[in-house]
Amino acid sequence: MTMTVIKPTEGRSVSFRGLGARFLIGGEQTGGRFSLVEHPIAPRALAAPMHVHEYEDEYSFALEGRVGVRIGDEERIVGPGELVFKPRGIPHAFWNAGDEPARLLELISPAGFEEYFAEIAPLLPPNVEEPRNAELAAVMARYGLAMDFDSIPDLVERHGLRAG
Length: 164
Prior knowledge:
CATH architecture: Sandwich
Order of helices and strands: EEHEEEEEEEEHHEH
CATH topology: Jelly Rolls
Number of domains: 1
Mean pLDDT: 95
Low-confidence stretches: none
Oligomer: single chain
């Protein structure tokens, strides 16, 4: 086995609608047990509306900024050094609650869902003029992701966010 070191400027990255994904460790390196993704989130950006994962749990560790999280009916603002567990099967959303950039380190278990971000990036602005909704729906279905787009207006209004 060889040592893996990923420098701060390395790693494949994608971005769309105020959310980025930098791929640090994928399932191919962990035998499918977990993946690790860094999420930069633009100020006041809704990173993801309410949604449910069928197959994986997510653990979000705040590196910088203030991140709002809703899990089920509970909401919190977390800051650097705090960890949030987002279990599969439970609706959740997250956003940058501040006027400065925020960053999360997200552990996804089991691995596989990290590639969702790479697949949807070319289907969303600013990478295309208009979202490719039919293709997005197919990607979400393949990853067992149910997205509640009706939650966007409420989250945006209550938290002073930009929806992308």
